[in-house]
Amino acid sequence: MNFSQKLGLFILIVISVAYVYFSFFNKDGFSFDFTNKTPDSEIQELPPLVEEPQPPVDNEKHEVKTVKIFVSDSNGKLRSVNRQCDTAVEKSCFEFAIKELIKAPSNWEKSKGFTSEIPPGTKILSIRDGEGSVLIDLSSAFEGGGGAESLYVRLGQLIKTVKANTNEPAYLYINGKQANVIGGEGIMIKQPLSERSLDD
Fold first, then answer.
1. CB 114 within 8 A of CB 79
2. What's the total number of domains in the chain?
3. What is the DSSP string of 60-119?
4. Which of 17, 124, 137, 196 has the most crowded CB, counting CB atoms within 10 A?
5. pLDDT for 137 beyond 90
6. Is 146 among the domain residues?
7. Segment 13-27, tens digit of pLDDT
8. Cα separation of 160 and 187, whole Å?
9. Does residue 139 form part of some domain?
């Protein structure tokens, strides 16, 4: 056997051994990876893709305003108490003030001797705030019960609350009709509402 034949036989044996090894002992099978490997030291980890946070869209101006409503103290005098109106919640701080007036006083205010002459059954039928004037439409419960003195006090509460929270001329309506005379005693009201509305 000459040299060439020996060399060929050697190569054949090497290939056979390699085939057997990769076929039966290598779990990945017979494969070669000729791709260029990048050393681990040269691999750069890219930062995760994060979208730039956008500020929340809020077209409403969030602002808290202090409004005043009027109640009676233990001496029967009208006194103002404050309420906080959140403009992001309430469409009108004037309307909020009237709602709080109808509900007043709070439990804490009651504990301090504050009272209200506005009957508990009084409901706000509508409040129109704008176009150069304010219209307040209340249910007929507002003028019921308590006598003339109580009527004067509750009208004073309403008038002072209105004037503390708007510069627009304001008109009182009862059940959809302008209230120029109110209650069984026939108390006359000069409109728009002002400090002189109850003057004779």
1. yes
2. 1
3. S---EEEEEEEEE-TTS-EEEEEEEEETTT-S-HHHHHHHHHHHPPPHHHHHTT-B--S-
4. 137
5. yes
6. yes
7. 877 766 666 665 554
8. 17
9. yes
